[in-house]
Amino acid sequence: MSTAPNHLFSPLQQRSLTLPNRIVVSPMCEYSAVDGHATDWHLVHLGSRAIGGAAVVMTEAAAVSPEGRITPSDLGIYSDDHIPQLARIVDFIKANGSIPAMQLAHAGRKASMSKPWETPSRTLPPAEGGWTNVVAPSALRFHDEYPLPHQLDRAGMDKVIADFIAATKRAVAAGFLLVEVHAAHGYLLHEFLSPLSNTRTDEYGGTLANRARFPLEVIRAVRATFPQDLPIWVRVSAVDWVEGGLTLEDTTEFARLVKAEGIDLLDTSSGGNDPRQQIPVGPGYQVAFAETIRRETGLATGAVGFITEPAQADQILRTGQADVVLLAREMLRDPYWPLHAAQTLGQTVPWPVQYARAASGEVPRREPLKVFLKGEEVHPVRDPEKTGKSGSGFRDSLARDGLKITSTRQTPDGRFLHEGEGSGAMIISRVPPEYWDSLKEK
């Protein structure tokens, strides 16, 4: 019996999540945050792509520490103060039927820089909002205008891991249902992987197994922290496009290693780690990397890079070259690309009810995103009235979900972060646990 091939609008299961289609908004730096805080720009930028019907809407690289930013205007996830505005964005994305995702990142030696549209490109001194604690696997500049980084020692590496763990917990608190670890484009984890930027002679340099050791420590920590029912992706640069750099064979072996760590998909990009790179840019120029890794390892992959046309994206999926397509510049040009692609390919997909009159013919109404774990719908923000009517207090209710609360802290906006053990690492609410504990069955 033959099975119909996957196509652009077929669903994809990733742990407890069902992607309604195979279209992902690729992470794109906006350089529009204030002290790491998301702004209304991020709400509109990400929210409009959710309205447009992408299955997954992913934030730009969110820095796990202040020194892990590319510029002072990068999005951050290194403070609890960042959670409220991110939660607002997450709620909007979910309300429009998309899965909210966050890319967790550390810029490494490409940090403390001016915004890319400010010329000439230069390192920012502390007097202009920059910083001096720029770190990397080796004390090698990316280019002349970039800072000279400090080589990470064991204590510094432990801090980076702790920063990724804390950032993951904050992403959960904000309501993100998928996180991606950024190990591409010449940022910290890619710097460790590539022999061009990693010249260490200890157990973290030399062979691929050694160069991959620290990225795997970070990935392992994120996987242990993020709810096990939810997926984690990793973005890689499959090749460095420079002789003596990272090869597709290296990245294929790294894919096997991350698959063993419980990673669900490899987002397959390339380059960004050496200014000498010579990239043969063209339509779908990186798709073959995703196809090879998928075939050789059995790990799901994402294809990215100059994917612009609906038929092109559909063909990538129908021929088994990747499991999802990530669109970047084309999504900037057209936030409603998924809706237009469906019309082009003759597929009927849900539209926001507010926009349905613009569709060609009758279309189903878009519904808010619903997530089910073990057959029951999960509500990231718990309703105290509903909890009370269910006949139990706060901790008893959570215990039924396999959770054990170990600590509670309050955020500046008055919400409470209940951290604990079990399948969900963190629960967020607007009332203290004492209030829920006091509720009685009626």
The CATH C-level class name of the largest domain: Alpha Beta
Which fold does the CATH topology of the largest domain refer to?
A: TIM Barrel
Q: Radius of gyration, rounded?
A: 22 Å
Content of β-strand = 15-25%
The coarse silhouette is globular
Termini separation comes to 54 Å
Number of domains: 2
Q: Give average pLDDT, whole number.
A: 88
**Sheet with the most strands?**
8 strands, parallel, barrel
Level-2 CATH architecture of the largest domain: Alpha-Beta Barrel
User: Which structural class best describes the helix and strand composition?
Assistant: alpha/beta
- What strand order characterises the main sheet? 3-4-5-8-9-10-11-12
Number of helices: 14
Your description of this structure?
The chain is an alpha/beta fold and 442 residues long. It has two domains: 12-358, Aldolase class I (TIM Barrel); 381-438, no CATH class. The protein contains 14 helices and 17 strands. The protein has helices spanning 40-51, 83-95, 154-174, 188-193, 208-211, 213-225, 248-260, 287-297, 310-318, 329-333, 337-345, 384-389, 394-400, 433-438, and strands spanning 12-14, 17-19, 23-25, 56-63, 99-105, 135-136, 150-151, 178-183, 232-237, 265-269, 301-304, 324-327, 371-373, 376-378, 404-410, 416-421, 426-429. Strands 3-4-5-8-9-10-11-12 form an eight-stranded parallel barrel, surrounded by seven helices. A three-stranded antiparallel β-sheet has the order 15-16-17, sandwiched between helices. The protein has a two-stranded antiparallel ribbon with strand order 1-2. α2 links the parallel β4 (56-63) and β5 (99-105). α3 (154-174) packs parallel to α6 (213-225) and α7 crosses α8. Residues 380-403 and 421-442 have low confidence and may be disordered.
